[in-house]
Amino acid sequence: MAGRGHGLGRGLGLKIEPFKHPITMDPNYADKTWKILEDAIHEIHNQNASGLSFEELYRNAYNMVLHKYGDRLYNGVAAALTRQLQAVAARVEAAQGESFLKELKARWDDHIKSTQMIRDILMYMDRTYVTQQHKTPVFQLGLDLWRDHVVHHPVIQQRMLSTLSDLIAKERAGEVIERSLIRATTQMLVDLGPSVYEADFERPFLAAAADFYAKEAQAFIASCDCPQYLRKAERRLSEEVDRVKLYLDASTEAKITAVVENELVREQMRALVEMEGSGLVAMLRGDRFDDLARMYALLRRVADGGLALMRQVMGDHVKETGRQLVNDPERQKDPISWVSRLLEERDKYEAVVARGLNDDKTFRNALNQAFEAFVNLSPRAPEYISLFIDDRLRKGLKGASDADVEAVLDKTMALFRYLQEKDVFEKYYKQHLAKRLLSGRTVSDDAERGMLVKLKTECGYQFTSKLESMFTDIRTSRDTLADFRSRLATKGTDLGLDLTVQVLTTGSWPTQGAAKCALPAEMERCCEEFRDYYLNAHSGRRLTWQLNMGTADLRAQFGSRRHELTVSTYQAVILLLFNEADSLSYKEISAATEIPTSDLKRSLQSLACAKGKNVLTKTPMSKEVDEGDAFAFNDKFSAKLFKIKIGTVSASKEGEAEKNETRHKVEEDRKPQIEAAIVRIMKSRKTLDHNAIITEVTRQLQPRFVPNPAVIKKRIESLIEREFLERDPNDRKTYRYLA
Amino acid sequence: MAAQPRETVKLVSAEGFEFIVDYKAACVSNTIRNMLSSQGSFTETELGTINFPEISTPILEKICQYFYYKLRYQNSTARNIPEFKVAPEEALELLMASNFLDT
């Protein structure tokens, strides 16, 4: 409101002109006043200000500016300063050698002090004239003039630079130098402006450093091994950082470290990492955590690919050693040691990453990838890992604390994670678990359950549901059996032998087809008894006997010695035949027992051919059982122990045939899973081209196994046949979902 | 820093009247503050006395009053700060002095 329509107003930047004296001036006034000021400036410059009156000088300068002699004053000051500085430059130039920097510093300190004083007395000019005319303020003018006349004086400039470089070179070579002078000089350059510091000192300094370190890197790489080199490089880096802290400007730190990193690390990193006998591979082999940490710290500084190089070399090394490990024919014979070796390898690299590589996630990933790559090189990896767990859960627990077992199993789970064919593992695990459960060989129920929980968290409910129902079966069987026995006791029936039955749910267990065999009468009666009991208790169920999975304890008399034999049901059936006859031919046994050929052969083999457990003798004597062989009860059998366990020759590791069979089964099991995945995908996407389906299916099934594209193609074709899908009539490569 | 901070400063007018004011108050004027704190040894710094041959006694008195007025109220948040009265006949000279003293 106030300013509207009026030219005047407080808010409108009203300027009050300096009052103009009406009296006419002495024409020599300016000259006289300037003379006073010039003398004063001269005195000030000579550090001789005492006796001068600030007020008087200020007043004179004030009046000069007030009377429009600002130009005169300003230029006069500039000229006076220039003259003085030229004299200073001459003095500095005259100073040689060590005194040069001292002289420079002393002159500089004086100059700063006098310039400040001059600025103070010319304050009024700075405030009015300089701002109005857009001139450089007095103090800055002093600095600029110093820069132009002293620092950029050709001799001084050159000598300053060479003196500084010489000193720094001396210090790099290990000599003690006068740091405070360098500090003062660089500080002066910084005060003159960052660009002055950069141009007159920093740039040549960096170039010299690059040159120096390039040479040094050459020398080091030729004379030192990798750890030594790394130590030296590390020391150089910290030296340069200290140097910056001690006497250079802080802005230089990043630049000089970049130079040193570039010359000492980046240029040489490949040579270092791959150095024969002492590079990364040697460090990994020797578990040299400190050296690794050093290498990591140095290479991390190299933004473009330092760590990537290290990761790659490490990954390749792990893959290579892993591949050798996995394919080592000696180790392949023993799954347990095969897996433990892998676990050791993993422990080792875990330690490397944790202690040498700063727990770097990217390295851990690289490590996992490398492990995944080589673990899956062996088609038997799933089987071996399951066997290893089997072994731990059978006997490994004895003596080991729960925590230890947990730790081992956890580590094994880590290996399991690397597996691509998790369904194969599941298959084997099921088999092994079934054996453990049925033979009562599990040492700790808790450990078994713990393992199950681990698998569940890893692969989900679907993976373990069948395994869990196996446990339930065993538990209910125990109750059923107790009930059955008490029933027998109340009925007063004596079966003549002790029957243990485990009722298994069909489908949850890896059962082979129920092989029939002719049981001896007393066993047959037991079975009947149990069947009656069970079907009474649970109507509508069907009971089939899995004789191939049972065991029996027999008491036998060999001459005068008595022994208790633990044998499989088949073996028991065979042995019971010898109650009636001392000698039987293969054909007779086969006819009497009706045991399938392969099982019969295996049972006979373990009865007659196992050393120290040959309760039967075979003619002719040989390792293999043939159809023409004859068997006789071995009267002369003797053993130290009363109880003897005769295992079936079903080695822990699968034979070639069984392996193929399992393989085949797995393939069969995969088919519906692949089909289900295809249908799921097509149901939501309706149309999709071939490659997209393959990718999508692979992605969905990844957690369980990696499906083969050819197999997927077959499944698609089968689905088309069954009219779940059809090919797009226009594009043969595209499929459509048929609701 | 040149002189150790003084308690008081003596300001001398054109007519030779002396005003002794607190150092703090005198420093309301940037010019005076510079005079007293400038590097080197100007006479003002050494003696603690400043001559103003171009400022008359009444004006210097008014200036000293203003120093204390400024010091008293510059950081005050009070609502009713009293007006610093300047007589019209003094105004011009005072304006010139304040320009000189950068107050």
UniProtKB/TrEMBL annotation, chain A:
InterPro entries the UniProt entry points to: Cullin, Cullin-like_AB, Cullin_homology, Cullin_homology_sf, Cullin_N, Cullin_neddylation_domain, Cullin_repeat-like_dom_sf, WH-like_DNA-bd_sf
Keyword Protease annotated: no
Cullin family profile domain mapped to chain residues: 380-608
Pfam family, one: Cullin_AB
PROSITE patterns named among the record's database cross-references: CULLIN_2
Gene3D superfamilies the UniProt entry points to: Cullin Repeats, Cullin, Chain C, Domain 2, Winged helix-like DNA-binding domain superfamily/Winged helix DNA-binding domain
A GO molecular-function descriptor: ubiquitin protein ligase binding
Protein keywords: Isopeptide bond, Ubl conjugation
Protein name: Cullin family profile domain-containing protein
Organism: Raphidocelis subcapitata
Automatic annotation (TrEMBL), chain B:
Chief location category: nucleus
Domain SKP1 component POZ residue range list: 8-70
Keyword Phosphoprotein on entry: no
Keywords linked to the UniProt accession: Elongation factor, Nucleus, Protein biosynthesis
One BP term from GO: jasmonic acid mediated signaling pathway
Localization per Swiss-Prot or TrEMBL: Nucleus
GO MF entries: translation elongation factor activity
GO cellular component: nucleus
Listed Gene3D superfamilies: Potassium Channel Kv1.1, Chain A
Family designation: Belongs to the SKP1 family.
Protein name: Elongin-C
